[in-house]
Specification:
There is one protein chain. With 371 residues, this protein is an alpha+beta fold. The protein folds into two domains: 113 residues, Release factor (Methane Monooxygenase Hydroxylase, Chain G, domain 1, Up-down Bundle), CATH 1.20.58.410; 240 residues, Alpha-Beta Plaits, CATH 3.30.70.1660. The chain is built from nine helices and eleven strands. The protein has an eight-stranded mixed β-sheet with strand order 2-3-1-5-4-9-10-11. A three-stranded antiparallel β-sheet has the order 6-7-8, with helices on one face. The longest helix is centred in the N-terminal third of the chain and has 41 residues. Its main location: cytoplasm. Keywords: Cytoplasm, Methylation, Protein biosynthesis. GO terms for molecular function: translation release factor activity, codon specific. This is Peptide chain release factor 2. Peptide chain release factor 2 directs the termination of translation in response to the peptide chain termination codons UGA and UAA.
Length: 371
Amino acid sequence: MALDELSERIAQLDQSLTSIEAVIDVPGKQKQIANLEEEAAAPDLWSDQEHAQAVTSRLSRLQSDVERVQGLRSRLSDVAVLLELAAEEDDPDSVKEASKELDGLGEEIDALEVRTLLSGEYDERDALVTIRSEAGGVDAADFAAMLLRMYERWCERHGYNYEVYDISYAEEAGIKSATFTVKSPYAYGTLSVEQGTHRLVRISPFDNQGRRQTSFAGVEVLPVVEETDHIDIPEQDIRTDVFHASGPGGQGVNTTDSAVRVTHLPTGIVVSCQNERSQIQNKAACLRVLQAKLLERARQERAAEMNALKSDGNSWGSQMRSYVLHPYQMVKDLRTGYESGNPDAVFDGDIDAFVDRGIRWRRQEEQAAAV
């Protein structure tokens, strides 16, 4: 790439980063960091553990946001200096190094720009994801298992921690459902665009006649409830059942009734957990999931009240992505139109492009609805 093209690229990235810095409000965040650092240094901070956790968590996230922006700004300045030296000394190796660094900076600045679009009430939180097999029999159960692996691989690609709370295995293959958390800043805001119905078209490996099968799986994404939410669930409003934890094919993984199922009687919501070794731990996990579902239910009720005032409803939650393995290979987002011709890579966790475009699409829909 010619020097003048690289200089133009630097100017474009500088403009994008300046816009991001304005949205993020680095000086404002630095003031918040200073206040939180002073609060975190108080000797009696941990006398109230809930408050202390909220302070330290908020401080860590703000510091990470500021450090990320400042790091990108520093790298962009360094590559500009490198390009100037390369031009003065007619050094093609430095030009190549600058070009490579600009490619990496472009990807990171684009990703940070998407992050600035996550400004919802719960977007900063961890995500609670549930995958369910829907129409399509054993193929749907197998598809649900493929989606679970896809999200696990996505987490591993990014170094995000995740924890599987519960898996209900299907009899022949795959899973009926799975619930897991993704523990990373903005996990909910990022993954919330994955919510909806996913569709798979392929030659069924479970059909001895080799026929093409269409199957469906649903993905639900909720924000993880924090201690400060204080959702009150009276004990008389829940029914708790215990049962043996089980593995694939119904094989028991232990001989005690450690798995727990909690039913919220007023709403009929049922959650279960068998990941932990004791009833107490599993019930605590169940209550965390139930709180998240009740929090989301309250949010949806508020959103329904607002949507009732609008003339046009939204199509959120309907079929959103199609995975076609036969007669051609393609994964397509039905909302954004973005597609990939490499389903294997997608199922191996390469979904960032779909997620980024989903976030941009959602912001455009929100802006259009606000007009």
